[in-house]
C-alpha cells in the first residue's frame, strides 16, 4: 500500500477515442508525487488521496493539484496519492508525515469509493471486483489488517494456499468482468 521512492512511469494513454498521447510521471521521496522543502518559510500544504491524486494518466504538471501550484505560486506542496487508499490509510499517512512536514493546510481528496475501502464487510461483499489485498480497517477503535477475500485466514498462514487461491481470484475476476451486470444479478439473488 505504499510506493517505492523515485518511481518513474512512461505510458501511452488514450485521451479520447483514437487519440493517444505519451504520459510521463515521477514520484519522489517516500512515494510522494510532490515533496517540497520541509524547511521553507513558504506556506506548506499536505495533500493526501487515492488513485485520483496518484494521477498516473497525466504527465507531471497536469495533475489536478498542479492548478493549485499555478494559482498559489508560493505554496510548497507535499502530495501523496496511492491507488486503492481509503480514508483510514490517508489518515495513517497524515499521522506518519505531519510532524516532519508541519503543513499549514491539509487537503484530503475523497472519491465515492473511499468509504467502501474502509469497511471490510462491504469490500468482502463485492469480491472479486474490489480490493483483494491485505489492508487496514478501523474496527472498534482499533486498526486491524484483513483481506476481504475467501479463506483469508488460510491465505495468511499458508504461502502455498495463498498462491493457489490467487489463481482462483484471477479466474473469478476474469469471469466477473466479462459481464458485470450478470455477475451483479447473480450475486444479488
Question: Which SSEs are present, and which pair or pack?
Answer:
Blueprint: E1 8-16, E2 19-26, E3 34-35, E4 44-49, H1 51-54, H2 66-71, E5 76-81, H3 87-101, E6 105-108, H4 114-117, H5 120-125, E7 135-139, E8 142-146, H6 152-157, H7 159-178, H8 180-188
Parallel strand pairs: 4-5, 4-6
Antiparallel strand pairs: 1-2, 3-5, 7-8
Helix pairs in contact: 7-8
Question: How would you concisely characterize the structure shown here?
Answer:
The protein is built from eight helices and eight strands; from the N terminus they run ββββααβαβααββααα.
Describe this structure in words.
This protein is of the alpha/beta class. Helix 7 crosses helix 8. It is globular. 22% of the residues are buried. The model has no long low-confidence stretch (mean pLDDT 88).
Cα-based radius of gyration, to the nearest Å = 19 Å
Secondary-structure element sequence?
EEEEHHEHEHHEEHHH
- Major β-sheet, in short? 4 strands, mixed
Count of individual helical segments: 8
Distance between the termini: 33 Å
Write down how many β-strands occur, each being a DSSP E stretch of 2 or more residues.
8
**Strand adjacency order, main sheet:** 3-5-4-6
Structural class determined from secondary elements: alpha/beta
Range of strand content:
15-25%
Regions with little confidence, pLDDT below 50 for 5+ residues: none
Helix content range of the residues, please?
25-40%
Dominant shape: globular
> Kindly state the mean pLDDT as a whole number?
88
